[in-house]
Amino acid sequence: MSAEVAIRAAVIAALREDAALMAMAQGVHDGEPGRAAAPYAHVGECLGSDWGGKDVEGRELRLTIGLTVAEETPGRLAEMMTRVEPALGAAGVRDGWRIVSAGLLRSRVARSGGGAGAGWRAVMDYRLRVVRDG
After folding, report:
1. For 103, phi and psi rounded to 5 degrees?
2. What beta strand segments (E) does the chain contain?
3. Segments of the chain scoring below 70 in pLDDT
4. Burial of 60 (0-12, 13-18, 19+ CB in 10 A)
5. SS3 of 119, please?
């Protein structure tokens, strides 16, 4: 299996296993959901490139994680954002691929929509370096 698909699945599983995050969100989706009630998280685009060493098969991935809340203030959103990095660190080996480092590249927080249904949205882009395990 490709590193991109395996690591996406591992990250989704790790986010779903984070009890603190799941206490704040109704679900974690694979891709931006078409119909979902906020608050929720989703794992978005994953871009991959070659990375590794002499005896190490590796990939560098750029993974987007999004969070959405429907509150007037971004308080819950900020709490949800703090749960993402620990979940990345807890992601296990999936189909022979393991995360060896994760770093936040950039994050964006903004109001979503307008009017009575407005809320807040965060999008975080991570650089993950992964290696084939075994």
Report:
1. -140, 140
2. 28-30, 40-53, 56-69, 97-112, 119-132
3. 114-117, 134
4. middle
5. strand
Name the residue among 89, 94, 121, 112 with its Cα closest to residue 25: 121
SS3 annotation, 19-54: HHHHHHCCCEEECCCCCCCCCEEEEEEEEEEEEEEC
Q: What is the pLDDT of residue 117?
A: 64
**First-to-final CA distance of the chain:** 14
The size of the chain, in residues, is: 134
- For the record, the structure tokens of 50 come out as 């070659």
Structure tokens at 3: 């590193």
Main-chain dihedrals φ then ψ at residue 56, nearest 5 degrees: -125, 125
Q: Which two tokens stand for residue 84?
A: 């993402």
What does the pLDDT look like over 17-36, one tens digit per residue?
A: 999 999 999 999 999 998 88
Instruction: Give the Cα separation of 77 and 56 in Å (integer).
Output: 37
Distances from the Cα of 113 to the Cα of 32, 36, 107, 121, angstroms: 15, 15, 19, 10
